[in-house]
Amino acid sequence: PLHLHPPPMTMYSPLPQEDSSSPSQGRTILTRTPSPHVNRKLSTIRNWWLVLIIFVTSLLLMSLSLTSHQAPTHPAIKPIPENHQLADAIFHKVAPKNLEMDLHEEKTRKLLTEGDQHSDNPKQLGLRSCSDSEPVSKVGFMKTHKTASSTVQNILLRYGLNSDWNFVMLSSGSHLGPPSNQYSLTKPFSSAWIETVPWHDMAQDQGYNIFALHTKWDQGEVERVLGSGAKYVTILRDPVDEFESLYNYVHFEETFKMDLEQFSSAYIGGQRPIPRVRDYLGRNQQLWDLGMDKEDINNHEAVERKIKQMDEDFDLVMIAEDFDSSLALLSDVLCWPLVNMTSLKLNARKKSAIEKLSPKSRKILKDWLWADYMLYDYFKKELEQKKKNVWVSKFRRGSC
């Protein structure tokens, strides 16, 4: 029979094992050396990977640092006061030529005296030596509008900076209003407004020392921020002069289309509705700054209650027209050396920029600002009494 056999299958033989030590196999192994170009490319890739690793590591370390809740021993972020005079001037669109800034420090202020006479002997003026008291390290200053408050603020901030103190302020700006619009002082200050500042953890650990920016005052909320041991101070000014300064500084004429002389007769005399400029500036501004709302600010009984409450809350209410004596008393209340009460004249207009009012207009304005006058007259008398008390208790008893 015929047998058909399939063709034999060809099997692949295994690859010979490379053995560089056996030249008897007769195989030559060639080594391929990379070109210089390839070497440079590989080196560049390795370098970029190294940079990437370092960058990612840095990000991880930064993330861990930011999420840590422990207050740093030496915080890198610290609230530093801005040039608040310049910030206010820019915000209110005041030309630099209308601001008068005396850059020469004044000589030590004339010290308070009995009556109208002055003396250069601090001992005769009853200024305490503070030998038995520590200087005050927490100050709440209610910065009222157009009352020489910028000069007092400058004294406090300068002392605080020299002492490496912490200031109550938002992340930027010169006011302490709602964070959504810090320059609209329509709501009383809330301690919650400063809980998001970058230095909040540091402040929780170290505490705040000075509250001295424009705000709508709330005594309880400020006390919540400063804590115990703080002294509270503010300053008032003759209400007609304060309103004249406010009217021209903030350019009320752009709202009412007339100067203050015309305003007093057309609006006040004519009993026309008078809105608050920017919702927070206007009639009885000093009481408004100190926390009164529009429902109570022209209520006689409410104003009386406010004055009594302020008398309990504030350690000193300064009077702009008696600025020298006010500074001497401020030195006494804070137990700071009198030399620290030297000041620059800040945010003051040139005399030529002050509007001259007729006696009739001043009388109309004084009647209209009766509530601020209740406040001003009360604390003006209080200042006189404090001066007499210092004189009687310290000079006549020879306690100094």
Task: Provide the descriptors you would attach to this structure in a database record.
single chain; about 400 residues; alpha/beta; 4-stranded parallel beta sheet; 13 helices
Structural features, described:
The structure is a single chain. With 400 residues, this protein is an alpha/beta fold. It is built from 13 helices and six strands. A four-stranded parallel β-sheet has the order 3-2-4-5, with helices on both faces. A two-stranded antiparallel ribbon has the order 1-6. The protein is elongated. The N and C termini lie far apart (147 Å). 30% of the residues are buried.
| Euclidean distance between termini CA atoms | 147 Å
Q: Low-confidence stretches at least 5 residues in length (pLDDT < 50)?
A: 18-24, 68-77, 82-90, 92-129
Shape: elongated
User: How many helix segments?
Assistant: 13
* Number of DSSP strand runs: 6
Average pLDDT confidence is 79
Order of helices and strands: HHEEHHEHEHHHHHEHEHH
Report helical residue fraction: 40-55%
Major sheet: order of its strands?
3-2-4-5
Structural class: alpha/beta
Quick one: biggest sheet? 4 strands, parallel
Rg calculated over all Cα atoms:
37 Å
Strand content: 5-15%
